Amino acid sequence: MIKNKPKGISEKAVIKTYDIKKKDMGIEENFSTVSKIIEEIKGHLINLEWVMEFTNFNDYNRVWREKRDAIKKNDLETISKALDDATQKANCWKNSKKKEMNNALSRIERMEKNVEKEELNKKFTSLRGQVEVIDWKKPNVESLHNIASQLDTLRKQFREELIKKLQNNEDAASIIEEPEIIEDLGQKKGWGFDRFFKALEVVLRSGVIEIRMVEEE
After folding, report:
1. What is the pLDDT at residue 65?
2. How many structural domains are present in the chain?
3. What are phi and psi of 56, to 5 degrees?
4. Domain range holding 70?
5. Are 38 and 4 in contact (CB under 8 A)?
6. Residue 25: what are its φ and ψ, rounded to 5°?
7. How far is residue 38's CA from residue 217's CA, in Å, rounded to a whole number?
8. In this structure, are 86 and 122 located in the same domain?
9. Is residue 122 over pLDDT 60?
10. What positions belong to coiled-coil segments (predicted)?
11. Residues 23, 10 contacting (CB under 8 angstroms)
12. Does the residue 217 lie in any domain?
């Protein structure tokens, strides 16, 4: 059993699990049960092999700590359960990052249609291609961090160019970047009606967006 244990799991955890189980079952059944738990742990570790230590991604650190701390538990059953919990949290983190990146791409794309800046347009095309080929099953965290950082920088650059085009009206740029602002007349942004209307007027006068009424079913 000890020879078959995954790397990082202590011998003490294997022995302790065996000692706990031997109170309720015979040697062969105990051996089989412990071996089964070891296989469960191996499966969890395969699912979590993409989770490596990387300190530059602040909200990722808790995912890495969950895996690290799970492996250090005192017995195999506790380790297996902790790794299962860590896997669920890691998957939630991946889904959150995927959503964030897709949202960033959508925001940039809306601005990109109204900003004629060849260098920025090429950068957007390149980054969109990088996002499309991400292996979300087992992503490279350092690569994700770099892409996310570049997307954030590019979004700010596009926004800066768009603001110039919209008479230096930041609110108008926000309407282009986040068209859902129109749905509640800017209330979620904390805008009063006058502020919203002024920004919308700048957008409409610039001709950079077409507003269509949504037909009720």
Report:
1. 94
2. 2
3. -80, -15
4. 11-165
5. yes
6. -150, 165
7. 56
8. yes
9. yes
10. 94-128
11. no
12. no
Same domain, 126 and 177: no
Instruction: Quick: pLDDT tens for 66-112.
Output: 999 999 998 899 999 999 999 999 999 999 999 999 999 999 999 99
Closest CA to 40 of 87, 3, 72: 87
Same domain as 173, residue 150: no
Query: How far is the first Cα of the chain from the last one, in angstroms, to the nearest whole number?
Result: 64
> Average pLDDT of the chain?
88
Neighbours of 7 (CB within 10 A): 7
177 lies in the same domain as 99: no
Q: Looking at the structure, do residues 159 and 173 belong to the same domain, yes or no? A: no
d(CA 53, CA 32): 33
Q: Please tell me the pTM assigned to this model.
A: 0.82
pLDDT in tens, 13-34: 777 776 766 666 666 777 788 8
